[in-house]
Amino acid sequence: MPGSRVQDFYARSGSGSEIANRIIGALRAAAGSSVAITAETLAPFDHVHARGMAGTRALADLLAPKAGDAILDIGCGIGGPARWIAVNYPCMVTGVDLTREYCDAARELNAVAGMSDRVRIMEGSATALPLPDAAFDAAYSQFVLMNIADKAAFYREAFRVLKPGGRLVLFHLNAGPNGTPDFPLPWAAVPENSFLASDQETRSGLAAAGFQLLVFRDAAQAAPPAAVTEVQPTAGLHILIGEDFPRQRANVVRAEEEGRVRPVEIVAVRPA
């Protein structure tokens, strides 16, 4: 099943403790053994999506959470954006992710950063969220929908758990007009694990779930992909993802340049 294949792909990073220890060790190697473990210092390692910390800042600007809001991160990974948003806005963030190892790592990093009371992590599927109806003021998802075959279920579940008037912000990659990308990619080693929708399919899916679309725009000019180099820095996503990350990143950069994938920013609202 697609879900189990996705879990297997990400679980290759190791157990939750292995992931957390590797990240903390790399942070201390880069910044010194006395460095504070915070949402800010962890940022080079734990914003596991194409635009990194800059992307999370841009997403948070569109999300516009208020102090005390209940926020949902759908596909939270190891929790970097959830921790950063909880600190900077300040609000309560619940993260849901399909991969047990990532959930375990997120909880360990929350504990080390002193944020277990502000960021809750739950293992579960984005297409069957283990959450009650109308529980959240806003929700977001970054570079997750490429792994989800049943996007209609994703949109329905996001709509269900949002309060009336709640906002959904999505940053992800859609299919481009010029064919399929080369593999491996940061979200899939093989084509069978990658589910890229067209812009029209995305618009239709959100509307069918009941959302009112506020923003739908091409994000390529706002955040061009970073240059790919052969030399790995001390800090970076390769600490989590592994040695294949440069090849994955090169493939997605080339696919974007050649119009085979298309970064989009979306804001939708559940009508009041």
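[next item in queue]
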Amino acid sequence: MGVKYLSEEWANAFTDALANHDGFQSAIGTTDLGVQFQVTDAPDGGTVDYYLDIGNGSAKMALGQLEDPEVTIASDYETAAGISKGELNTQAAFMTGKIKVTGNLAVLMMHQPIVSNWTAAAQTVDIDY
């Protein structure tokens, strides 16, 4: 039995997966990066905000709002779940307008190894959608 997608348990399991993923740990190095996510149309009908906060050689996923993120990524639940499941390519979702990115997109693009390893670490978490 996995953790419920976009729950506190999910965020904690994701933080643990990032801490234990050698590729992700190597990719973050001394990077400071904050990414805010906003998922609309969640199963309860609401919006779920969560963030990835990288700094001092560690990373944390948590529900809520991050103060002054470099980038904010917004999508609906169906898109976010599709990306999380590996059924939808993030770049394709961006190019077709299924995800909206605001803030400093160049910063996100500079850290492509972090994004790639973040996705790989995500595959180690057993998630219930």
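[queue empty]
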